[in-house]
Amino acid sequence: MSMLWQSKPLGRHTNLRRRCHWESEKEAAWVVRRVVSILGHPRKDWDEEKLDRVVLKPSVLSSEHFLQITLQLSSIPKSLNFLKYLTAKAPHHHSLSSVFQASLQLASRHPNSQTHLLRLHRFRNSTLPTLPLTPKSASLLFHCLQNAQMLDDSLLLFNQLHPSAKSSQLCNGFLRVLLISGRSGDALHVLDEMPEPNSGFPATGEVVFGELVRRGTSFPDGDIVGLVTKLGERGVFPDAFKLTQLVSKLCGERKIGVAWEVLHSVMRLGGAVEAASCNALLTGLGRERDVKRMNELLAEMEERRIKPSVVTFGILVNHFCKAGRMDEALHVFDGMRGRGGSSRVGVEPDVVLFNTLIDGLCKAGREEDGLSLLEEMKTGSKNRPNSVTYNCLIDGFCKAGNIDRAQELFRCMKEEGLQPNVVTLNALVDGMCKHGRVHRAVEFFNEMKGKDMKGNAATYTALISAFCGVNNIDKAMKCFEDMLSSGCSPDAIVYYCLISGLSVAGRMNDASVVVSKLKQAGFRLDRACYNVLISGFCKRKKLERVYELLDEMEETGVKPDTVTYNTLISYLGKTGDFATAGKMMEMMIKEGLKPSVVTYGAVIHAYCLKKNVDEGMKIFRGMCSTSKVSPNTVIYNILIDALCKNDDVEKAVSLMEDMKVKGVRPNTTTYNAILKGVRDKKMLHKAFELMDRMVEDACRPDYTTMEILTEWLSTVGEIEKLKHFVEGCQVS
User: Fold this and answer.
1) Sorting pLDDT into bands at 50, 70 and 90, what band is 731?
2) Which residues, at least 6 apart from 166, have a Cβ–Cβ distance to it below 8 Å?
3) Cis before residue 197, ω within 30 degrees of 0?
4) In whole angstroms, what is the distance from residue 604 CA to residue 614 CA?
């Protein structure tokens, strides 16, 4: 009864409050209509006295009512007039922020919203720089400024915002724009200014890590590490996939140090790190051959209990294989399986790892060790050998010249049901060609074609190169024609190989035809190809074609090198055009190319051929005194031979002494030239000295040496001396 009595006054008070609130809202709605009505007129027709009484004096109007008034104007000029009026009359009015927000909302709905929003932005900057922005106003202005790519204004606006207006959505959107624009330093600043605590940090991490993966390598190194570290300090880390992507991308751009800092920053701040991310860094370190830091990272993985995967060991094995450190590769391989006392156990090697190791062993000339691993795969491993396994071994034995063993492996491969492929074909064809079995290579290729296995450009290159090497140009051309008719498109190497072979053989017309086909196929001649063509045309004495090629080189931007100039100088010297040869050497030096021993040799040889030994000796003395190029055995041989033929044996003997002083080793050609000279001068005692020196130098006599000495020494009755010489004993 008493409770019922007490509830009645409470009900009366509640109803009274509700009635007062309703009356207040009714009055406010009436005031709003009055204000909207006044503001709806042109500015000059406003009843400012009434407006001042309602707007400026304490009234029932709240900030929300001012927002409604401005939105109901439905006109950007009218809303701007109201904003200007309120700014002029009451610059610190409590509802200015709401009026400004409503003006922005009206502007954002206009078809030409960007222009009107920027106008309001400029108005605020010039008239109300300290006006607090509502979160809605901040969002509208940021969107506008970012669309206008006014990032400096956006940053200034961000700095002016009250922390309450810096929502996670606004900050994350701004961060994305800054990172897309490459302004990682400003992004770091925005992260610093984001309020704490911020529930939006995980989303922030998604934005930052996503952009770092997409374009992070274009940012300054310090900013990349800084962004990862700042987020890590707030407990936000990239997931395993993104971290691996980022580390891989940095390593791919040769930013190994940055990748190292990023990974270790995540580790240090307590982020989860998996083997995949460490593997990405190990790959980069291996590429840089940084063994010290590879070992350091492996030790850290062990310390942090990051279990290495088969990929981890694959990276290490691959690194050691590429460096030719096969014993270390085998040590790692044994270690992963718990052999040799290693603590790294429990990881089963896969077929890729076996193949990497076998390939490395074969490249290091340890084919038998590779075979042992093959047997292990067949018997004690879950990973059966595949075509790649056999291809590595076949290629290894072919390169070692053991073609029979390679063919035996080929048969085993087929017996195990593994299908040979073009890699298998090329390994065997190339091996046969390079070890004198060209005919067998052709037979084998034809057999494989009969089994529907087509060769590729590498197959035909091996055959064409082999035929050119034995000067069987007709077979090389037929092979090229077979290639075209089979539908296999030649690559640049095939063309270069054939052009080189034809040029060396002097078949310049055929070489020119192949050059035309090369150009029709969309390829361009490289410097090496131009050089072999120039050499070929020089040998055929077709100087006009040489100059055409030189003009073409200039047009296509291919600069002549030392080989080009040496070929031209040698040709011009042989034709007796020493003036042009001299100009060529001057041009060569002007182009920044230093004359080599071949250059000097070409000029000296040319003078000697024209029986102008004195000029050749002059070039030789100049070479010894003014250039940094030392004469070699070939140059000495040219001069010694020319001096002897010129009946100046004493000077030739003097050159032999000069060779000894300068440490240039004479060869059989040197001794043959000087022995002919001393024979013609009947300098028997000197011949004995030369024979003794030849024995000391372990220089083996050839047919020419024996012919000179046998005829001469038998005539003068010194055949015993010849026997001692042949036995390798001192003569005098």
Assistant:
1) low
2) 138, 158, 193, 194, 195
3) yes
4) 10
For the chain, the straight-line distance linking the first and the last C-alpha, in angstroms and rounded, comes to 151
Q: Helices (H), strands (E): how many in the chain?
A: 40, 0
CA-atom Rg of the chain in angstroms: 44
CB 59 within 8 A of CB 31: yes
Instruction: Flag whether pLDDT at 693 surpasses 80.
Output: yes
**3-state percent breakdown (helix, strand, coil) of the chain, nearest 5:** 75, 0, 25
Residue showing tokens 């279990």? 307
| 17-21, 135-139, 203-207: least confidently modelled range | 17-21
Cα–Cα distance measured from residue 494 to residue 205, given in angstroms and rounded to the nearest whole number:
52
Instruction: Spell out the residues 6+ positions from residue 499 whose beta carbon is closer than 8 angstroms to its own.
Output: 511, 514, 515, 518, 529, 532, 533
**Exposure pattern of 412-444 as b/e (b: 16+ CB <10 Å)?**
bbeeeebebebbbbbbbbbbbbbbebbebbbeb
What whole-number distance in Å separates Cα of residue 260 and Cα of residue 285?
9
Name the H helices within 40-62. 48-55
Q: pLDDT (tens digit, 9 = 90+) per residue, 347-358?
A: 788 899 999 999
Give me the mean pLDDT over the 661-689 stretch.
91
* Burial group, residue 12, by CB count within 10 angstroms (0-12, 13-18, 19+): exposed
Tokens of 312: 């981890």
Mean model confidence pLDDT for the chain? 86
Model confidence at 21, pLDDT cuts 50, 70, 90, reads very low
Say whether pLDDT at 4 is over 50.
no
d(CA 363, CA 349): 21
Residue 374: CB partners within 8 Å, gap ≥ 6? 358, 385, 389, 393
pTM of full prediction above 0.70: no
Average pLDDT for 575-599: 86
For residue 407, give every residue at least 6 positions away whose Cβ sits within 8 Å of its Cβ, in sequence order, or none.
Answer: 428
Cα of 182 vs its chain's centroid, Å? 22
- Classified as helix, coil or strand, 212 is helix
Could you tell me the two tokens for 685? 């005692």
Show the 3-state SS of 368-426.
HHHHHHHHHHHHCCCCCCCHHHHHHHHHHHHHCCCHHHHHHHHHHHHHCCCCCCHHHHH
Burial of 192 (0-12, 13-18, 19+ CB in 10 A): exposed
The amino acid at 526: D
What is the distance between the alpha carbons of residues 507 and 234, in angstroms, rounded to a whole number?
75
3 state DSSP class of 282: helix
Amino acid at 106: L
